[in-house]
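Q: Hi! First time doing this. I have a protein sequence and I read that you can turn it into a structure. Is that right? Here it is:
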Amino acid sequence: MRKRRRADQLNLKARVDTRDAARNAVTRPGDAAIIVRGRARSIVMACPCGCGDHLTINLDPRSGPAWRLIQRRGKLTLYPSVWRESRCRSHFVVWQNEIYLFGRNEFDHRRHPKLEECVYQQLADGRPRHFSDIADSLGELPWSVLVACENLVSEGKINELEKPDGRFIRPPRPSNIHVVERTS
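A: Yes, that's right. Below is the predicted 3D structure, encoded as structure tokens:
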């Protein structure tokens, strides 16, 4: 199959009840269809790299390891990233209908001061936390919280434990106690 142009946007084409219907709806890189039978079971998408493959991504944790599909304000986010271990070997993130192919384009690191402050406060107890756990506690998208964490790391306000572990910690504040030696 001839390589097609890569996709930067997810294009939800349909919500269907069979894999065949999903595959028929998905024709171009970035096209996707959600298979729904009572609940979202999987998402079928044309690989965004343009290789022509169809990917079936499990959304149902009862069927084994599953991705989370988050729908907000008409936009879709998948978590965690999709990393193909065969064929084209693409690695990508779907975040608010944007597709970020690793090695081709990077996350948008725009500053969101309110979110960054909320993330900073979540780390006040000095315990390491994974960015997805912080996102869940704040009701935010995991990729948005990851960017907020990376911005806070760049400012020296928090530290990431072993990269790419995804866990962050707020370093202890230096003590304001000064030791003064007395001389007699």
